[in-house]
Amino acid sequence: xxxxxxxxxxxxxxxxxxxxxxxxxxxxxxxxxxxxxxxxxxxxxxxxxxxxxxxxxxxxxxxxxxxxxxxxxxxxxxxxxxxxxxxxxxxxxxxxxxxxxxxxxxxxxxxxxxxxxxxxxxxxxxxxxxxxxxxxxxxxxxxxxxxxxxxxxxxxxxxxxxxxxxxxxxxxxxxxxxxxxxxxxxxxxxxxxxxxxxxxxxxxxxxxxxxxxxxxxxxxxxxxxxxxxxxxxxxxxxxxxxxxxxxxxxxxxxxxxxxxxxxxxxxxxxxxxxxxxxxxxxxxxxxxxxxxxxxxxxxxxxxxxxxxxxxxxxxxxxxxxxxxxxxxxxxxxxxxxxxxxxxxxxxxxxxxxxxxxxxxxxxxxxxxxxx
Length: 371
Fold this sequence. Notes:
The chain is of the alpha/beta class and 371 residues long. The chain contains 11 helices and 17 strands.
């Protein structure tokens, strides 16, 4: 029976005209009548109150009993119950839990992920096994509550291989996995099915980029589509960033992002294994090295040391750790590896837990001034 649809700004309302049972009464009784109707659980808040001259038309949630009708008549007089067409307001859900309330059991709602990774127009969600059979329903709810999304993907396993690819499956929307993501004013063209990109690391990308000084040479050993690299190049007038990745698709998007962000001449995109590229082309050239390959960074610390200038420099190191004291464990790992490579930590500039990645496992970041 919907005959008109409208969006009411941020309230995200759809307004319909629909026939409903309502109470007709004089408008001078409006406030007291509404209080009583609410007490009796007769008021239907889905409909807006109608007006007919000096009369109000208040939607009823159900037909009143004889006793209720007598009480209303005694209190307000001249009332009438009738069917009328009123404006019905359908408020769109603002959260996934709101959208799924009534469709999933309370314990299932409690098991929904607390957050969704949004990369441009693509959402990536990690569902527990017990909710995977409802993934189409959940995906639809994610789209319904995020009007700018086109595709919802579910994680189908961990990030694996040196190319950092995660298996994903489409659970709602168009299925398009290529998108443009905006982060701190930088544009990133990315295909989340072919390259690695984590919006949860946006703070880290910005934190590291703000530390880079003019005239520095930076080696981004596992650059991906360039979240560290592009921010550095956008922030500094004179800088040289060597951005390395073994993934052909990542390098292709990195080169596109260099053009999108107008940082040509500041970034050199190199396809290959970081160790081999450093040994062949970049030994002893960098003031700063970024190592964002948490699952394998420890095995590349000798290559990072080789990339630094003889006087030393700064290493931004990321690693997963399940130790009860993760920061101390990461510092011990990097210290021992640097000593084997003939270097040492002169000073720990920053050490922090970035995020939890699994029960009792964390992604840790350590900035080390290396001599």
